[in-house]
């Protein structure tokens, strides 16, 4: 089944251009004045020669052919000192060790789970890199292997950290922290991975009783706020961690969750990078407008939101 | 006869029903093959990347009556367990039931596959498959309206390449393709169905104009070697124009996003 989105609407492009780079990098981008460093981001297409390989180093999204650096993806040319990269706007997630990702179990295999994390290959979650219910630290036994589906089943969502890479480039995940594990009480919103920046913390609590997990792979979990339990590593609640049951969620929280979800969708549609402060401001703006959750997706409300945010930012 | 029941989830329509087809007389053929444009001109192209929201990349191309949608999924992990150092490219072509003069039953037949093979050949060498071990890239092409199979192959190759670029897949260069037919003694570029039927031979050329590389040449019917070379030359010139259309549509899509 095909679903066609509407023809691309012209948006005010100055906003995301102004936030194109991290402020730390911004200064490095305009070192001197040759053709690679304009104020406008330069766009390129596969096969286009960017520069000569003698003066520059090739980065991601480029290849070298006979002393020329040539783009291999369509996107914006970026330069940090001598390194030239081309960043594609819509692309798969490129994992790095330590990244926080949200994923979905696709398969249960001997001593491992396969996880879809929006990457080029399925991620792997080894049985040895999950916490056992009850918090006991021990080797995983054969009995644990037999009840792997009690921990994670096909279709379950989880939050994890990238632990390492296999030799073929597939990433290995771990959930060995109380913050990680199975997800419930909320909804998943997917955005292009490029929009999620590396933040100090990817677990965000909005004051409206909504928790956010910004996975670097573009999967965002929007859920009911969980109370911080001050139990130590040892005594965490075994049942809750691998539970498949949602808790009771009252109507106000449900509305808040879908409102936040819709804000993220609108911002992603307009290609605005997501940060915690931006989401907070956007939520406050939406409350001021006194619309219900779906109002954002109708008519010009989305454009108005983005316009309001660009004024503040 | 189990097959003849067709797909029971679809509305299959009557088993056999054709509108009467009359023999074209000479006049008609002449009228149909008469072009409103010069022999060296191609039909105007409308190209729009990113039309299918759930795909990783997509493109829609329209050249006059030929209308093709293309969706790219991946790179994603190959489902089979065998290890492969290089990525795989799957191309699947589907005709809509209303795409041709005669109703096309929604069953895969030989033509789908031969189209898929030639499109695969046109784009496979442009993709840096060595960067995607164990992965598969799926390209799904839906032919919504068909006006000449040569034009379809050429347009579909262009659309597929645009969709791959839209998906952010690493490529050596953009592929553009053009077809030519020999009608009488003339070379008609981008022939319509009627022209192709009246022609003695056709050529489809796919190339990467940015790198000045040819990725695929497909010649059928009979023509002299001289003529074939001339066809390729003309096609190559048009490919350069098509390349700038593709590049421009991608850049416009980027600035609009």
UniProtKB/TrEMBL annotation, chain A:
PANTHER family: EXOSOME COMPLEX COMPONENT RRP4 (PTHR21321:SF4), PNAS-3 RELATED (PTHR21321)
Domain spans labelled Exosome complex component N-terminal: 43-80
Any one annotated GO CC term: nuclear exosome (RNase complex)
Protein name, as recorded: Uncharacterized protein
Family recorded in the similarity comment: Belongs to the RRP4 family.
Major subcellular site: nucleus
Top-level taxon in the UniProt lineage: Eukaryota
Residue span of region Disordered: 1-41
Biased composition (Polar residues): 1-17
Chain ranges of the RRP4 S1 domain: 92-163
K Homology domain sequence ranges: 186-227
Listed InterPro entries: Exosome_cplx_N_dom, Exosome_RNA_bind1/RRP40/RRP4, KH_dom_type_1, KH_dom_type_1_sf, NA-bd_OB-fold, S1_RRP4
Pfam families: ECR1_N, KH_6, S1_RRP4
Gene Ontology BP term (one): TRAMP-dependent tRNA surveillance pathway
CDD domains linked to this entry: KH-I_Rrp4_eukar, S1_Rrp4
Gene Ontology MF terms in the entry: RNA binding
Automatic annotation (TrEMBL), chain B:
Molecular function terms, GO-annotated: RNA binding
Exoribonuclease phosphorolytic domain: residues covered: 42-170, 173-234
Any single GO BP term: rRNA processing
GO CC annotation, single: cytoplasmic exosome (RNase complex)
Gene3D superfamilies documented for this protein: GHMP Kinase, N-terminal domain (3.30.230.70)
Residue ranges, annotated region (Disordered): 1-26
Sequence ranges of Basic and acidic residues compositional bias: 1-13
UniProt-listed InterPro entries: ExoRNase_PH_dom1, ExoRNase_PH_dom2, ExoRNase_PH_dom2_sf, PNPase/RNase_PH_dom_sf, Ribosomal_Su5_D2-typ_SF, RNase_PH
Keywords: Cytoplasm, Exosome, Nucleus, Ribonucleoprotein, Ribosomal protein, RNA-binding, rRNA processing
Location(s), subcellular: Cytoplasm; Nucleus
CDD domains for the chain: RNase_PH_MTR3 (cd11371)
Protein name: Ribosomal protein S5 domain 2-like protein
């Amino acid at each position: 089944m095909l679903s066609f989105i509407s023809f691309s609407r012209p948006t005010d492009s100055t906003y995301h251009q102004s936030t194109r780079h991290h402020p730390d990098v911004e200064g490095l981008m305009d070192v001197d004045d040759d053709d690679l460093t304009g104020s406008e981001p330069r766009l390129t297409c596969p096969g286009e020669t960017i520069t000569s390989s003698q003066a520059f180093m090739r980065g991601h999204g480029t290849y070298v052919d006979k002393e020329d650096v040539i783009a291999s993806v369509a996107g914006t040319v970026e330069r940090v000192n001598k390194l030239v990269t081309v960043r594609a706007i819509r692309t798969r997630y490129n994992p790095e060790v330590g990244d926080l990702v949200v994923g979905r179990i696709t398969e249960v295999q001997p001593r491992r789970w396969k996880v879809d994390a929006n990457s080029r290959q399925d991620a792997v979650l080894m049985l040895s890199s999950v916490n056992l219910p009850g918090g006991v630290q021990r080797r995983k036994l054969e009995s644990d292997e037999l009840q792997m589906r009690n921990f994670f089943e096909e279709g379950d969502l989880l939050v994890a950290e990238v632990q390492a890479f296999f030799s073929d480039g597939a990433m290995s995940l771990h959930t060995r922290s109380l913050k990680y594990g199975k997800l419930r009480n909320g909804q998943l919103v997917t955005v292009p991975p490029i929009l999620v920046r590396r933040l100090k913390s990817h677990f965000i609590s909005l004051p409206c009783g909504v928790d956010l997990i910004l996975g670097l792979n573009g999967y965002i979990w929007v859920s009911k706020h969980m109370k911080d339990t001050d139990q130590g590593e040892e005594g965490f609640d075994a049942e809750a961690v691998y539970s498949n049951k949602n808790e009771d969620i009252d109507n106000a929280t449900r509305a808040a969750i879908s409102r936040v979800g819709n804000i993220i969708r609108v911002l992603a549609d307009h290609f605005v990078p997501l940060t915690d402060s931006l989401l907070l401001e956007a939520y406050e703006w939406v409350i001021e407008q006194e619309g219900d959750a779906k109002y954002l997706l109708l008519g010009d409300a989305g454009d108005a939101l983005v316009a309001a945010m660009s004024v503040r930012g | 006869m189990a097959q003849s029941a067709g797909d029971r989830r679809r509305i299959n329509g009557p088993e056999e029903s054709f509108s009467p087809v009359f023999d074209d007389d000479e006049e008609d053929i002449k009228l149909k093959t008469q072009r409103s444009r010069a022999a060296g001109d191609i039909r105007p192209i409308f190209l729009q990347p990113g039309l299918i929201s759930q795909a990783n990349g997509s493109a829609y191309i329209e050249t006059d009556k030929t209308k093709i949608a293309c969706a790219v999924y991946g790179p994603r992990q190959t489902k089979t367990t065998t290890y492969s150092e290089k990525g795989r490219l799957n191309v699947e072509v589907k005709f809509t039931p209303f795409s041709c003069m005669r109703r096309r039953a929604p069953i895969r037949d030989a033509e789908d596959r031969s189209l898929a093979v030639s499109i695969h050949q046109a784009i496979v060498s442009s993709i840096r498959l060595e960067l995607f071990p164990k992965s598969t890239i799926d390209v799904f092409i839906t032919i919504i309206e068909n006006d000449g199979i040569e034009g379809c192959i050429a347009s579909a190759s262009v659309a597929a390449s645009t969709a791959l670029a839209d998906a952010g897949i690493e490529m050596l260069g953009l592929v553009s393709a053009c077809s030519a037919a020999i009608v009488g003694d003339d070379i008609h570029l981008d022939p319509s169905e009627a022209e192709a039927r009246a022609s003695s031979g056709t050529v489809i050329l796919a190339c990467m104009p940015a790198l000045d590389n040819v990725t695929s040449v497909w010649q059928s019917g009979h023509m002299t070697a001289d003529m074939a070379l001339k066809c390729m030359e003309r096609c190559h010139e048009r490919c350069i124009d098509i390349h700038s259309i593709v590049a421009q549509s991608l850049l416009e899509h980027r600035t609009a996003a």
